[in-house]
DNA sequence: TAAGAGGAATTTA
DNA sequence: TAAATTCCTCTTA
């Protein structure tokens, strides 16, 4: 299995500190900054200095400023209409207070990192649905490429570059180097290239993640624990260190890092006191409901979906 | 010692 | 009201 491009798999913790102004914020801090100073509206991503570090820092910049999912939905059709103020920042998962500032420990960094990647993947998924394009840029028609360009330009306030990539299909686009992107679009070409890299990584590593099967995040219904677990399992690139399939066909999975899974669940449900003891109690409630059980050969931290997909 | 099991009361959406 | 949370005791590996 080929490793994904630098973007998603190698967001090194050190990179999180590249730009002090994009340090992750706690929910409280975000709320406090909710008044949204003008700098937020004028934010635009700085071109990465190098593909590797730039992309990593870029993720965090992105994570920090990304507007509400719904805000751009309405805006995409008139993306160039000029009235695109970011609205309330997306409610990001509450990040442990120790994760803000320069004393981030490795644990918190990993947590932030996985959240960032998770958010990026989720947003790509949303974009796919709304633009009606596939997650794999290699499959894009020239029309799809234009849609993607328009969306990305709009999201990151990049100068229009659609014309520079006219008639290019996804395959040609993917084959282009960062330098070629820069040549076609001196302003923002590198950022576009970085974004394409993210999409390429996502589509090569997250096979099947766009099927939306357990994408409960936009259903309006409160998420169930079993759905959440499936969500994590569907995104091994982001959460494989925490939870993974042992036998996907049989629905058998293993929680590799119980504390982290519990923490993520607590973040999702806004239950800061969540821990594995409580999470596992909830899992056990599923036994009599026939949703999850222990596998025939019981192992610690290993469970099985009764009705695997 | 962490995980597992399950009772029971409480909270939440 | 269902699902989840919280707290608990006891067992198991």
What does this structure look like?
The chain is mainly α. Among the domains are: 113-204, Transcription Factor, Ets-1 (DNA polymerase, domain 1, Orthogonal Bundle); 225-305, Winged helix-like DNA-binding domain superfamily/Winged helix DNA-binding domain (Arc Repressor Mutant, subunit A, Orthogonal Bundle). The chain has helices at 6-9, 27-32, 38-42, 51-65, 69-75, 106-131, 142-156, 170-175, 178-184, 189-205, 225-233, 236-239, 258-269, 276-289, and strands at 243-247, 252-255, 292-293, 302-305. A four-stranded antiparallel sheet has the order 1-2-4-3. Helix 4 crosses helix 6. The two termini are 23 Å apart. The relative contact order is 0.11. It binds a DNA duplex (13 and 13 nucleotides) through residues 222, 224-225, 258, 269, 271, 273-274, 276-282, 284-285, 287, 289, 294, 298, 300-301. InterPro entries: Ets_dom, ETS_fam, Pointed_dom, SAM/pointed_sf, WH-like_DNA-bd_sf, WH_DNA-bd_sf.
Annotation keywords:
single chain, 309 residues, DNA polymerase, domain 1, Arc Repressor Mutant, subunit A, four-stranded antiparallel beta sheet, 14 helices, DNA-binding, sequence-specific DNA binding, WH_DNA-bd_sf, WH-like_DNA-bd_sf, transcription, SAM pointed domain-containing Ets transcription factor
Portion in beta strands: under 5%
Basic shape:
elongated
Q: How many beta-strand segments?
A: 4
Helix content: 40-55%
Provide mean pLDDT, rounded.
64
Secondary structural class: mainly alpha
* Topology pattern, helix = H, strand = E: HHHHHHHHHHHHEEHHEE
